[in-house]
Specification:
This protein is of the alpha+beta class. It folds into 2 domains: 2-18 and 209-291, no CATH class; 43-202, 2-Layer Sandwich (Beta-Lactamase), CATH 3.30.450. 64% of the residues lie in helices and 12% in strands. The protein has 8 helices and 4 strands; from the N terminus they run H-H-H-E-H-E-E-H-H-E-H-H. The protein has helices at 7-71, 78-81, 83-97, 119-130, 158-164, 172-178, 202-253, 268-291, and strands at residues 101-106, 136-142, 145-155, 191-200. Strands 1-4-3-2 form a 4-stranded antiparallel sheet. Helix 1 crosses helix 3, helix 1 runs antiparallel to helix 7 (202-253) and helix 7 (202-253) packs parallel to helix 8. The longest helix has 65 residues, at 7-71. It is rod-shaped, with a radius of gyration of 39 Å.
């Protein structure tokens, strides 16, 4: 197909193909880079949120729970004595100002039904139980929204058993609040759930697409300018000189021997024009000999 085109059209087709393939590569590469940057930002947010929640848990375990247990040993006050409950309450307060953060204690056998794990969380918890990994981090899509998520296992400890052994052993107030159907039968060392932190990437994904649009638009503009520049250069240095050579050659073939192949420059087209001029001189001499 290209062989049947003029040089200019052939050049435009080639440049267009180069543009298309270059844009595909540039957009794919740009998306990868911008997406990695979004994931890095989400990871930093997750690490900050995790640090805050862990610090709250440690403060409660070291300073609040011992005092509560000494002063009111028989009082049912999980917000001050159970780390999971305290973190959940603190997370809700944080989410009021930063709704992109989601904190969840997930378990296939939870005491609080709000903590029941979904299919994704079940697969991660099963991986913890099987020893596939000690912690997990990555991106996941839930309800059409992409999140950066981290998870660490929750193991049943001695301090957990008094709540999660049997309903008969647990505090009556707790049994009254949560019932007797779920959250019991834990044994020390069992992986009973996971602590999941999700950070929505909706905002960062929108910024990524904006960056990608600006990047793609900039590349397209630069490529368009380059195509126009190359087109002008090729027309002035290749196409027009060749067209002039063709025009002179046609005139000479019709007997106009006074025409000259005049090409400026010092390239292959100039060499071709000089060769045509020598051939014209030889042709003129041959014609003179024939006339004589």
């Amino acid at each position: 197909m290209l062989r049947n085109m003029s040089i200019r059209k052939r050049l435009l087709v080639i440049l267009t193909l180069v543009y298309i393939f270059s844009m595909v590569g540039a957009i794919a590469g740009g998306y990868y880079i911008f997406d990695r940057d979004s994931v890095r930002e989400a990871k930093e947010k997750t690490e900050l949120f995790t640090t805050v929640m862990t610090a709250n848990q440690k403060f409660m375990a070291r300073n609040v729970r011992p005092e509560i247990m000494d002063l009111l040993p028989d009082t049912y006050f999980p917000a001050a004595t159970v780390g999971i409950v305290m973190m959940g309450e603190a997370a809700q307060l944080i989410q009021e100002d930063y709704p992109e953060y989601i904190f969840k204690i997930a378990s296939p056998n939870p005491l609080n039904p709000d903590n029941r794990s979904d299919s994704f969380e079940n697969s991660i918890i099963a991986g913890f139980d099987n020893g596939d990994y000690e912690e997990w981090a990555g991106t996941v899509t839930k309800a059409g929204e992409r999140f950066y998520a981290t998870a660490v296992p929750i193991e049943a400890r001695k301090s957990c058993i008094w709540c999660h052994d049997t309903p008969e052993v647990a505090h009556p107030d707790m049994v009254e609040e949560y019932g007797t159907e779920s959250g019991y039968g834990y044994e020390v060392g069992d992986v009973v759930g996971g602590r999941f932190i999700y950070v929505s990437m909706t905002a960062t994904d929108e910024i990524t697409m904006q960056k990608l649009a600006i990047f793609g638009g900039g590349i397209s503009l630069l490529f368009l300018i380059a195509m126009l520049f190359i087109d002008r250069i090729v027309i002035s240095t290749v196409v027009k000189p060749i067209e002039e050579i063709v025009e002179v050659a046609v005139d000479i073939s019709r007997g106009k021997m006074d025409r000259e192949f005049n090409v400026k420059g010092n390239d292959e087209i100039k060499l071709l024009a000089d060769a045509f001029n020598r051939m014209k001189v030889s042709l003129a001499k041959a014609m003179d000999i024939l006339r004589k």
